Amino acid sequence: SVSADAYRRRHEIIVHGDKVPPPLMSFEDTNFPSEILREAQAAGFSAPTPIQAQSWPIALQGRDIVAIAKTGSGKTLGYLIPGFIHLKQRHTDPRMGPTVLVLSPTRELATQIQDEAVKFGKSSKISCTCLYGGAPKGPQLRDLDRGVDVVVATPGRLNDILEMRRISLMQVSYLVLDEADRMLDMGFEPQIRKIVKEVPSRRQTLMYTATWPKEVRKIAADLLVNPVQVNIGNVDE
Ligand code: ADP
Ligand code: MG
After folding, report:
1. Does residue 45's CB lie within 6 angstroms of at least one atom of ligand 1?
2. Where does the motif Q motif lie (predicted)?
3. Could you tell me if the CB of 231 is within 6 A of ligand 1?
4. Cα–Cα distances in Å, from 193 out to 69, 107, 172, 188?
5. Which ligand does the CA of 75 lie closest to?
6. Alpha helices, DSSP H, located in 127-200
7. What are the strands of the beta sheet with 128-131, ordered from one edge?
8. What is the pLDDT along the chain (237 residues), one digit of tens a residue?
9. Is the distance from the beta carbon of residue 27 to the nearest atom of ligand 1 less than 6 Å?
10. Within 10 A of 21 (CB to CB), how many other CB atoms are there?
11. Residue nearest to ligand 1 atom 12, measured at CA
C-alpha cells in the first residue's frame, strides 16, 4: 500500500523478497497477545522501531530473514516476540529442550537478550535461560534440567554443553543468529556450524547483522532458506 511505501521511504527500509508483507507501523496493527502488549506499554514504547515494524510480519509468516541494521535499533524484540508467538503455537515440552535458540557473540550481549526475554516472556510463562563462558557450568546445567523454552547462548559454551550431552536441540524450530558479523569476526564459525548440525533442518532461521560482508553472505546462504532481506538505513546491500 501507499502508506507502507511511504513508511519504508521515511525510515530507509529496503526489502528484497517475494510478496513482502507491509510493516506493522503501530502496536494496534499487531495481533500480539495482550501480555506482550502490556509489557510494551509498561516499557513506555509508543511505536515499533522500523526494524520491528518490518521484520515482525515477515517472521510471523514463518519465513527466514536476514536483517541488516545498526546497533540500538530494537532488533532483540524484533526476533523475540515472533519467537514467543512461534513457541506458543508449538505446545512443546520444555523438558525435551528449547524451541527457540538465540546465538549471541558475548556474555554481555547474551545477558542483555536474556533480560529482555525474561521481561517480555514472564507474563506469558515462558522460561528462558542463558548459557555463556567464564562462569561455572553447574547452575546453567541445573537450569537446563528444569526445562526451558528459550535458550540464549554464546557459541563456545553451548558447544561445550552439547559435547557433554546435557542439552538436546532436537526440538529447536526457531533459530536466531544475532550479531552474525561479530560472531564470525570472533572466530565462532566452526562452533556455529556444529550447533546448527544439531538443529533439525525443518526450522525458521533469522540472522541479524550490522554489516553484510562476504563471509556473512556465505553463512547466510548455507543456513537460511529463501530469506527475505530487510535493510535499514545506509548499510550496504
Ligand atoms: P539492537 O539489538 O538493535 O542493538 P536492542 O534490541 O538492544 O537494539 O534495543 C535497544 C533499546 O531500545 C533497548 O533498550 C530496548 O528496550 C529499546 N526498545 C526496543 N524496542 C523499542 C520500541 N519499540 N520503542 C522504544 N524503545 C525500544
Ligand atoms: Mg542486539
Report:
1. yes
2. 25-53
3. no
4. 23, 19, 15, 9
5. 1
6. 138-146, 155-163, 180-185, 189-197
7. 13-16, 228-232, 65-68, 204-209, 174-177, 100-103, 150-153, 128-131
8. 669 999 999 999 999 999 999 999 999 999 999 999 999 999 999 999 999 999 999 999 999 999 999 889 999 999 999 999 999 999 999 999 999 999 999 999 999 999 999 999 999 999 999 999 999 999 999 999 999 999 999 999 999 999 999 999 999 999 999 999 999 999 999 999 999 999 999 999 999 999 999 999 999 999 999 999 999 986 555
9. no
10. 16
11. 74
* pTM across the whole model: 0.97
Q: How many CB atoms lie within 10 A of CB 34?
A: 9
Query: Measured from the CB, is residue 77 less than 6 Å from ligand 1?
Result: yes
User: Is the interface score ipTM higher than 0.95?
Assistant: yes
